[in-house]
Amino acid sequence: MNIDTSRTELSRTQNAPQPTFSGATGATGPITKAISRRRTHRQQWRIFECIAMLILDAWLTHVSFQLAYSLRAAFEEPHSFLSNVLFGVRSTLLINDTVYYGLPKVDTYVGLEIAIILGLLSIFTIRGLYRLRLTGTWFRQTQIIIGSATVGLACLITYYFAFQPPATSRLMFIFAWLVTILVLVIGRLLVSAGMSMLYRMGLGETRLLVVGSGRLGKMVMQHIVASPNLGYSIVGFLHDMTEPPSDFGRFKMLGTIDDIGMVIRSMQIDEVIIALPSNLHQQAVRSVKLCERLGTSFKLIPDLYELSLSRIDMEAIEGIPLIGIRQASLNTAQRFVTRLVDLIGSAFVLLVGSPIWLCVALAVKISSPGPIIFKQERVGLNEKHFNMYKFRSMYRDAEQRKAALIAQNEAAGPLFKMKFDPRITPIGRFIRKTSIDEIPQFFNVLRGEMSLVGARPPVPAEVAMYEDWQKGRFAMKPGLTGLWQVRGRSNLSFDEGVLMDLYYIENFSLRLYFQILLSTIPAVLLRRGAY
């Protein structure tokens, strides 16, 4: 797709009745009205969202307080285990507290409950909880909730010791603090899951334009598409002339950075991410000013010498922003957990499914001459070579016939892929579509050469054609499955897949590890991109 073609397609989208543009940055007519309506609706939705979350948090705090009172009341049951524990603690630790009047009725705490609700909502607002997106920020929301509830508990304790109000249970403070955190965190998790479901259905998405086609821009697009729960829909990107113009996998090039005004207007862009290299500083400034004049939200990502975005650490000293780089590596605990899961998971699959694997081996042997297990040299952690195992799915002379099929290669980059590869045996086509051919790789996992999750190990011939940035895939053990596999497999371009592998490596967490493991099950069952 060249730039002229892109502009032609954009002009077609503007063929509404009597569309007119005024200047480089202004527009009149139906397009302007449509953009204005869309922005008004988004602003109204944002206000509704904040009010709804305020009401929800207030109700959940009320529920939490009632649950805390019920929990505290359980300690008052005569001759129960909890009441005996409470009596022992009071007699041991509170020696001077000889008089106890029992737990007051719940109505006594109405004033305290209202104060807690208003206080928490105020702290949440001050700490920016209602400015965060409802998806993709659950851990950040949890941090704010825990911190705010702790500040509220400290205020209550201070008030209690300063004024000594009557009919107050000190244990109620602790229960209210714990239960409120638990209920609010679960509530936010459910809201985040619900919003993620709506976004996946295409409802309420933010139409996003990326300005920049270099590695930084591609990395941004891949980071965003790897997290569909964020609610962004990438409309396309603008070419920055740093390399030959072309589409990037599923992402369409909509023109050059000089076309930003036309694209924002014609495509009704909600938000712009400017990811230009450092040598295009003036164009970045121009894009920022243009977004401001058009009233479009924007984010500017600095080009920090191609550093991983996930490793950037920001802090400020006396208002001066400081940028640091975190070391990217697995800690000992993470290595232990992933290795333990790798061993248990691999042994379980091999043992429990052994009757099935024996039948598959027999079918491979009968269907065509050749070995049952196909052994191939692959490149793994730190570019170390190892032999990877698979059930043979091709005829014995597959490698010799590859040269004659190179012209029919359907994959970009160093990969060779054909949807209807004539070298594949009938039984091989079935086991490849169902991913059963990968089962012997569990032995590679047991031997420590691979992990259950990671970048797929390439053959040495492919690695010889890698660019330097693509070799970042070897920073971790290769995997039996990975983000590339669960997001589309052969349906994705090579560069897209590599960036997904780098995203996993640079953003590694146990949460992401288990998320990919679980996502592999529907990916295999639905056979997405498998051939």
Structure at a glance:
The protein has helices spanning 3-13, 30-74, 81-93, 110-126, 138-163, 170-200, 215-225, 260-266, 281-294, 332-352, 354-367, 398-405, 426-433, 441-446, 460-463, 483-486, 494-506, 510-526, and strands at residues 20-22, 26-28, 206-211, 232-239, 253-256, 271-274, 297-300, 312-317, 320-325, 373-379, 385-391, 451-453, 479-481. It is an alpha/beta fold and 531 residues long.
Helicity range of the residues? 40-55%
> Strand pairing plus helix content: what structural class?
alpha/beta
Radius of gyration: 29 Å
Q: Number of helical segments?
A: 18
| Strand percentage | 5-15%
Largest beta sheet: strand ordering? 5-4-3-6-7
Overall geometric form: globular
Distance between the termini: 27 Å
| Mean residue pLDDT | 78
The poorly predicted ranges are 1-28
How many strands, what sense, and barrel or not for the largest sheet? 5 strands, parallel
